[in-house]
Specification:
A hairpin with a 5-residue loop joins strand 1 and strand 2 (100-108). This protein has helices spanning 2-23, 31-47, 49-60, 64-86, 121-134, 149-160, 175-183, 197-209, 233-245, 262-278, 297-312, 344-347, 363-371, 386-395, 430-434; strands at 93-94, 100-108, 111-115, 138-143, 168-172, 190-194, 215-218, 224-227, 257-261, 316-319, 334-337, 354-360, 378-382, 400-403, 422-423, 436-444. Helix 2 runs antiparallel to helix 4 and helix 2 crosses helix 6 (149-160). It has a 7-stranded mixed sheet, sandwiched between helices. By secondary structure, it is an alpha/beta fold. It binds 1,4-dihydronicotinamide adenine dinucleotide and magnesium ion.
């Protein structure tokens, strides 16, 4: 029954998006009109920021402060950014050989299917919906089953902003039913997915087996965060802590392998442990709380399993190592030292507040070890030496390298993965290519202007 219901909802949503694309008015509006709607929407979100931040905390368990101060402004900024792109998308005239007039049209692809995860419900919505609408597509977006709330709220605000019916359809539902229906639908022209590498493979296959819709994937990671011997240890400790523990450790790009040069290792370890012990865990609505609960029982148990695996493989448990209290999915901020590359906690995505600290001796060694992973989403480098930073920046096989900073997510900065961390880039100018296709138009012409 549930399966049938979900499939029906997905199918109705796709029909609505198809009709809105084929019959308009959305793709036929002027780009300026589309841009105005995106701006009006962003302004409405800004007006409802407090309400939305509170709803996002209910939705996900992240701290209200983080939702209000970081994620809502990021959301609004991203829609302003893509509203700015809407009327700057155009093709080229091409000087072909012979008496031909050749132009390219940059057209929207059609109906975009978008599947998002639960760790940043609003931010993921923005990264997907912003560029797709700026390019004139229509959308069916499926939220994660854990976090349906804020997408529904902002969809209502889109309606208020004047977005025509059928252009944006938000479906709440489960992955193997609603998500899979979207990935394999013959009337969906493009698929964008963020989530685990395993599910990324599933949706890529569903797309291939149905209508070969192009797929962009933003998947898992095991990002190295490299602290060189010249680093200011206090700053490095704070940044490495942030890189891992931010958002309860539930970040695809979390700096989850902290490589520390042997000369600063002992001091770094001592201070990292102290910092983790000071981390304030509790009610995410309470001021000063840095860490809320994990998203659900499944993720909570997964994190605890990895902690047990770290202990069993003889990494040194410096602090934490268990749940916090007996109620709710709170996990103690956990630090392991003496972590070796072949341990599971150094290879798999834990997606929780578990820091793994590894020791290294020289730059060539750390490059080799940092790259020895199936993932390639992001990397962090902490050094005062520009030459060391440049060497590492070139050698690391990752879609983003943050130098002396981490988790900087400006709307204009492209984001995406090398290797099994994904296909394609989101944000910035790069995301526009995901939602456009190029049509070459050729006609004979006498005496072309450029000959
Ligand atoms: P998931 O990749 O299974 O779920 C993400 C989205 O995909 C959700 O909307 C889900 O409903 C949908 N989905 C699931 N199965 C599907 C299917 N067969 N067809 C179409 N859509 C489907 O991730 P999950 O199970 O929530 O978490 C598992 C692990 O994935 C986490 O522990 C973490 O390691 C990783 N993850 C990575 C994220 C990232 O930002 N790259 C976000 C969430 C999870
Ligand atoms: Mg899953």
């Amino acid at each position: 029954m549930l399966l049938k219901g979900m499939l029906k909802i997905s199918t109705r949503a796709v029909s609505a998006a198809r009709k809105a694309f084929d019959e308009g008015p959305w793709p036929k509006m002027t780009a300026y009109e589309r841009s105005r709607i995106l701006l009006r929407f962003a302004d409405l979100v800004e007006k409802h920021s407090d309400e939305l931040a509170a709803l996002e905390t209910w939705n996900n368990g992240k701290t209200y402060e983080q939702a209000a101060k970081t994620e809502l402004p990021m959301f609004v900024r991203l829609f302003h950014y893509y509203a700015g792109w809407a009327d700057k998308i155009h093709g080229l005239t091409v000087p072909a050989d012979g008496d031909y007039h050749v132009q390219t049209l940059h057209e929207p692809i059609g109906v975009a299917g978008q599947i998002i995860p639960w760790n940043f419900p609003l931010v993921m919505f923005a990264w997907k919906v912003g560029p797709a609408l700026a390019c004139g597509n229509t959308i069916v977006l499926k939220t994660a089953e854990q976090t349906p709330l804020t997408a529904l709220f902002v969809a209502k605000l889109f309606h208020e902003a004047g977005l025509p019916d059928g252009v944006l359809n938000v479906v709440s539902g489960y992955g193997p039913t609603a998500g899979a229906a979207l990935a394999s639908h013959m009337d969906v022209d493009k698929l964008a997915f963020t989530g685990s590498t395993d599910t990324g493979k599933v949706v890529l296959e569903l797309a291939a087996r149905s209508n070969l819709k192009p797929v962009t994937l933003e998947l898992g990671g095991k990002s190295p965060f490299i602290i060189c011997e010249d680093a200011d240890v206090d700053k490095a400790v704070e940044l490495a802590h942030f890189a891992l523990f931010f958002n309860q450790g539930q970040c695809c790009c979390a700096g989850s392998r902290t490589f520390v040069h042997e000369r600063v290792y002992d001091e770094f370890l001592e201070k990292s442990k102290k910092r983790a012990l000071r981390r304030v865990v509790g009610d995410p609505f309470k001021k000063g709380v840095e860490q809320g609960p994990q998203i659900d029982v499944e993720q909570f148990e997964k994190v605890l399993r990895y902690i047990r695996s770290g202990i069993e493989s003889h990494a040194t448990l410096e602090c934490g190592g268990d749940r916090l209290g007996s109620k709710g999915f709170f996990v103690q901020p956990t630090v392991f030292s003496n972590v070796q590359d072949d341990m599971l906690i150094a290879q798999d995505e834990i997606f929780g507040p578990v820091q793994s600290i590894l020791k290294f001796k020289d730059i060539d060694e750390v490059i080799r070890r940092a790259n020895k992973t199936r993932y390639g989403l992001a990397a962090g480098v902490f050094t005062k030496n520009v030459s060391t930073a440049n060497t590492l920046m070139r050698a690391l096989r990752a879609g983003t390298v943050w130098i002396n900073c981490f988790d900087v997510f400006d709307a204009a900065i492209p984001f995406g993965g090398y290797k099994m961390s994904g296909i394609g880039r989101e944000k910035g100018i790069y995301s526009l290519h995901n939602y456009l296709q190029v049509k070459a138009v050729v006609s004979p012409v006498k005496n072309p202007a450029w000959l």
